[in-house]
Amino acid sequence: MGRLLVLIALVVVAAWLIRRALRRAATHDAPESSAVRDELVRCAHCGLLLPRAEARESAGALYCSEEHARLGPARRRAAP
Ligand SMILES: [Zn+2]
């Protein structure tokens, strides 16, 4: 019985290690930059969705381009 439990534990650990290795290979050893690259953010000026890595940051807001970073957040009309 004890042996069976050890065997099951080994199989679980092996499966976990294999899955982790596959995931690491898929992300080219850079899980952090991959997560940042995949994250989509919205331009504070025009609302365009773009990858976080391509966004410009200005005054705590994210923009799609230098132009929109310079123009700043879009001014919203008062709610009707
Ligand atoms: Zn924009």
Basic shape:
elongated
Q: Which ions and ligands are bound to the chains? A: zinc ion
Structural class: alpha+beta
Radius of gyration from the alpha-carbon trace, in angstroms: 23 Å
Feature tags:
3 helices, 2 domains, 80 residues, binds zinc ion, two-stranded antiparallel ribbon, single chain, alpha+beta, elongated
Short description:
It contains 3 helices and 4 strands.
If you had to describe this structure to a student in words, what would you say it looks like?
There is one protein chain. It is built from 3 helices and 4 strands; from the N terminus they run ααββββα. The longest helix is centred in the first third of the chain and has 25 residues, at 2-26. It has helices at 2-26, 31-38, 66-71; strands spanning 40-42, 49-51, 56-58, 61-63. The model has no long low-confidence stretch (mean pLDDT 85). Strands 1-2 form a two-stranded antiparallel sheet. The chain has a two-stranded antiparallel sheet with strand order 3-4. The radius of gyration is 23 Å and the shape is elongated. The chain is an alpha+beta fold and 80 residues long. The protein has 2 domains: 1-35; 39-80, no CATH class. Zinc ion binds at residues 43, 45-46, 48, 63-65, 68.
Task: Summarize the SSE layout with pairings.
Elements: H1 2-26, H2 31-38, E1 40-42, E2 49-51, E3 56-58, E4 61-63, H3 66-71
Antiparallel strand pairs: 1-2, 3-4
The chain binds zinc ion.
